[in-house]
Amino acid sequence: MKKYVLLILIVLASGVGGTVGALFSINYLYQDEVSYNSIEQRQQSVLVNYKRDTTYNVPAEKDFLQTAKKATAGVVHIRTSYGAGNFSINPLEFRHDWNAHSSGSGVIISDDGYILTNYHVIEDASNIEVVMNNNQRFFAKVIGVDASTDLALLKVKAGNLPFIPYGDSDRLQLGEWVLAIGNPFDLNSTVTAGIVSAKARNIGILRDRNNLQIESFIQTDAAVNPGNSGGALVNTRGELIGINSAIATSNGSYQGYSFAIPISLAKKVADDLLEFGTVQRGLLGIQISDVNAAVSEALSLSVNQGVLIERVNENSAALEAGLQDGDVITAIEEKPVNSVSELQETVARNRPGKKLQVTYLRSGRKNETNVILRNQEGKVKLAGKPIASEFDGASLADIPYQTLVDVGLEGGVQIIRLKAGKWQEAGIKEKFIIGFIDKLPVNNLEDFNRIMAFKKDGVLIEGFYPDGTKGTYGLAW
Fold first, then answer.
1. Are residues 95 and 235 in the same domain?
2. Which of 107, 305, 380, 399 is the most buried (most CB within 10 A)?
3. Residues recognised as catalytic
């Protein structure tokens, strides 16, 4: 009987305790349930006495904040249009209904508007529009292109632009952090990070009609997708060390590897295009292949790396320097070259007439010789593109500065004689001063040649007659 009484007391005590606990919870624990109406305010009031954890700091080599902020301003969105269209020749309106569009990226490399991009981004484009990081828009003219390296130099009329300074791609090391910046899938100012996976990589994607293509890519695992082409690859100091150009993919999108043209080569191409309008390519004049273990064993060579000379061309720099079939080149200017891609990149940084020291093996013995590079025609003289002054019946000439001032133009070319042809059919008369082509300013006759070289369809011509009368004409080209 006592046991049952004790059990009943325990049950009653438990019930009373639970009731008291519940009442306590209701009255005290939830009494401030509606004392605030902002979650952020509540978080801040609770965290006010908590100290931030300062035991971990981001290592300098992985802190991309400032680098990304600085570099994104120097990368632009390039939008291109293709195919013939219908111009509006209303001087107050510029409209051209184009048939096709595409987009890519570019890198501002000077404060006065020079932009480096891939050739395949603007190839065959009838119109090129550049959109800055701050949404400023410009029409761009093509200064020059080089299919053998897949590079193009553009120019927009602007000043005080943010540009990305050149770095040194030769100093890149495997495993070094890099950022890829561009406009994939039309997503402006996209930044991805990765490491350098390999250097001097040849993936066999470029084609050149003279078989002079150069592939010596920086390989990274930074995510790059369609639209990134022509964008920047920068190091953690925000320096430009490559132009993003390609991806290794089976489905058209990023699958782990991307490839960039090293800036050591790209900046030489840009300077050539700026100065001459075409690339000044120095050549050894040899046909070559990689040396590997199989080749070394077959030819009884003393090395397993290097570049084998299969043939020395006639009238070439190599022939003049005494190089022969079967020689193995191991260094240029004391810099080791272990593959064809390394040799091609190293030589391509130099213009015809440049003297290079070549280290090679012959019959197992090390030798050195000085080679004076030549161009494809076997000459050492540098030459730019010829400047034409006759265009389908129109004779053009540069304009004296005072004449430009009188009509309010900063540059232009004048039609001094006109015969039957497209210009007359468009209604243009002699003495007309051409100031703009497709809204691109024309500086002089050389600039006119440069612009028209990349025009394949109709163009919009704008300018003035000497008396100040404005003229706007649509010209079939």
1. yes
2. 107
3. 120, 150, 229
- Overall domain count for the chain: 3
The span from the CA of 258 to the CA of 181, in Å, is 12
Q: Are 369 and 358 in contact (CB under 8 A)?
A: yes
Among 329, 337, 391, 384, CA closest to 361: 329
DSSP annotation string for 298-322: HHT-S-SSSEEEEEEPTT-HHHHHT
Give the range among 34-43, 134-143, 300-309 with minimum mean pLDDT. 34-43
Q: How far apart are CA 104 and CA 101, in angstroms?
A: 11
Q: Which of 279, 310, 332 is the last residue of a domain?
A: 279
* Per-residue confidence band for 92, with pLDDT thresholds at 50, 70 and 90: very low
Last-in-domain residue among 279, 298, 314: 279
pTM: 0.82
Print the domain residue range for 188: 59-279
- Name the DSSP class of 166: B
Of 222-231, 356-365, 381-390, the poorest mean pLDDT is in 381-390
Where is 470: in which H helix or E strand? strand 470-475
Rounded to whole angstroms, what are the CA distances from 38 to 29, 30, 43?
A: 19, 17, 9
Question: How far is residue 190's CA from residue 204's CA, in Å, rounded to a whole number?
Answer: 27
- The pLDDT of residue 60: 66
- CB atoms < 10 A from the CB of 20, how many? 10
What 408-413 contacts at long range (C-beta under 8 Å, 24+ apart), as own/partner pairs, is 408/464, 409/433, 409/435, 409/463, 409/464, 410/441, 410/443, 411/435, 411/441, 411/442, 411/443, 411/444, 411/447, 412/442, 412/443, 412/444, 412/463, 413/442, 413/444, 413/445, 413/448
DSSP string, 170-187: GG--TT-EEEEEE-GGG-
pLDDT digits (tens, 9 = 90+) for 368-380: 999 999 998 889 9
440 and 158 Cβ atoms separated by less than 8 Å: no
